[in-house]
Amino acid sequence: MKKGLFAVLFLVYSYFLIAQNNPILAILKKDNSLLIKDLVDNPKKYKLKICYSNQHNTFQYRTNIQEYFFPASTAKLIFALCAAEVLSAHQIPLSAKFCYRRDSSKALTDSVFWNNSPTIASVFYKALTVSDNKAANLLYDIANLDFIQWRMKEWNMIQSIVSQRFSRVETLKNRIHPAILFLDTAKQNIATLDSVVVPAYCTKYNKINCLVGKYHEENGRKIKKPYNFVLDNYVDLGEIHHLLIQLMADSTNKVIKLNSEYKHLIVNSLGLYPSECTNVNFKKEEGYYDHCRKYLLLGTEDTPKDSCLRIYNKVGLAYGFLTDVAFIKNDCDSVSFFLSVSLYVNADNVVNDGKYDYEKGMKMMKRIGELFYEEEKNKHK
User: Fold this and answer.
1) Is 42 exposed, middle or buried (0-12, 13-18, 19+ CB in 10 A)?
2) Rounded mean pLDDT of the chain?
3) Which residue among 10, 16, 23, 353 sits deepest, i.e. has the most Cβ atoms within 10 Å of its Cβ?
4) How far apart are CA 182 and CA 92, in angstroms?
5) Rounded to the nearest 5°, which phi and psi values hold at 8?
């Protein structure tokens, strides 16, 4: 990444420009299969959104349409960046362990509890590499909601709204952050984050139309109304696409304020396959296959890895929505580009029933990734 990710500063400054001769549809139409033709012919049905940044410009498709999509785990990238900024500022080493203050006596006296307590590094790998919800909630508490929303504003994420952790709790609990202790390997307290109760005004509501589906299920009953996501997180695809570009810049980034140690940790967590993690033992028998969080290009197939291929990404999957925000790089093919895609697969239009068309959606995501990869690869032939 010595060349600054193909003039990443140009991409940053050109982000808000309306690109001429948008190639996105033309790239998709190179595939004549019924799968992709259906997607191209029915973008509203699939709530399709795409952001694509190559060496020359950033192109967007349907990202300006005020149409809700559930971001799911893509919000974990925001949690992670905000928590990393806090930890960088406090100079907390990656080897440090931490626990909530309420558990501090256990950490000091119970060897089993101590051995099972996470290190800083392991929490980031769990939250970003395999998208673990519990780990993401720890990062949410380290950052705290008030700081998260302030940093999002600083990052110009003005359409995006984050006000929930990764568990269904009442609104107040999303605003309560318990005190956290950081301990070194000798169990000495090296820093403490005090408990925080974020003011009620930080609970923000989505302003766009957040009604999805024709029906939804609630407590096992089918309700003849759309599902309302007004209280849920919303991450604008164009904004998080731009945030990933900012993160991957080589030079010292004045927007995302991380020291080199935390910058490397986050980039590494996004790019590693589960089998490559040395800090955490992710087992295949527990579902942690190398393709499990790489929707673009890999999908759900057990595709052999190209040793030159590296995908730095964050995915989201819930309520029929699939999202992948990715930087795709292959030095052997001289390929490097950013691609973010979100789509919706729910043929019966019933939300929250646990019955979605994810197999079809994964095939679409995989093929979309292949089409844009082929486009970039062919430029160098």
Assistant:
1) exposed
2) 87
3) 353
4) 8
5) -60, -30
Please name the residue that has the structure tokens 């100079």. Answer: 91
0.85 exceeded by pTM: yes
**Fold held by 4-71+230-378:** Beta-lactamase (3.40.710)
Domains of the chain, residue spans: 4-71+230-378, 75-204
CA distance 321 to 168: 18
Residue 377: both structure tokens together: 């690869």
Do residues 337 and 372 make contact, with C-beta atoms less than 8 angstroms apart?
A: yes
Q: What's the residue count for the chain?
A: 381
Report residue 30 as tokens.
Answer: 């190179």
Burial class, 135, CB count within 10 angstroms (exposed 0-12 / middle 13-18 / buried 19+):
buried
- State yes or no: pLDDT of 313 exceeds 70: yes
Residue-wise pLDDT tens digits, 191-248 = 889 888 887 766 666 678 889 999 999 988 999 999 999 888 999 999 999 999 999 9
Judge whether 366 and 358 are in contact, CB under 8 Å.
no
Backbone torsions φ then ψ of 64, nearest 5 degrees: -90, 0
Q: Residues of 46-55 as b/e, b for ≥16 C-beta within 10 angstroms? A: bbbbbbbbbe
For strands 215-218 and 350-351, give the pairing. Answer: parallel
DSSP 8-state assignment for residue 320: T
- Exposed e or buried b per residue across 15-28, where buried means at least 16 C-beta atoms within 10 angstroms of its C-beta: beeeeeeeebeebb
Torsion sign across C-alpha atoms 4, 277, 155, 53: positive
- Sign of the four-CA dihedral 278, 280, 286, 288: negative
CA–CA dist 96, 94 (Å, integer): 6
